[in-house]
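HOLO CASE FILE
Compound: manganese (II) ion
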Amino acid sequence: MQFKKIDLPFEYDALEPYIDSKTVDIHYNKHHTGYETKFNTEGKGTELDKYDSIEQVMINYDSISDEYKKLVRNAGGGLINHNFYWSQFVINRELTPEELENNNLIKEQFGSIQNFKDEVEKEGLSLFGSGWVWAVKENNKIKIIKTINQENPWMSKMSNVILGIDVWEHAYYLKYQSNRKEYISNIWHLLPFK
Ligand code: MN
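Model generated. Tokens follow.
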């Protein structure tokens, strides 16, 4: 079984000026490809072959043997996380009914979209080192969580992910240098939370 990264669903410059085309190019073609290659190369011919998708690998993380857990967590995590990352951006389209419904839930739960964004930003800034900030929907509740390195919500069996911000420096360093705060505050321009 080959576990594939998604095709980039837009041109390299589609996220400008908030995420620059060079960052998209390197992030997708070097980093994302690197996780994909490592996961497939080292996972080939192992127990991981029995899963149909990278989502299934992650959801079953607890039952994967210790020998492969690190590969799944790091390279597998990098693969699934970036598949989600590229898929979530809203470029020249209306919000879907589900996205509108999520926004209503957020307003009910957090008081406003701005409060939700503030909370996400706070989590993103308090994350030491490399990792991700996520929002997931479970039983009609929106939860903000953060994970270190390439760990992710799917590993904890939370598969209804509605937001995933990569806060590794490689996601923003060329344009923002070490200013993670500015990267996060600009990324909202590209996301379905209005
Ligand atoms: Mn990344």
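CASE NOTES: DSSP finds seven helices and three strands in the chain. The mean pLDDT is 97.
CLOSED: yes
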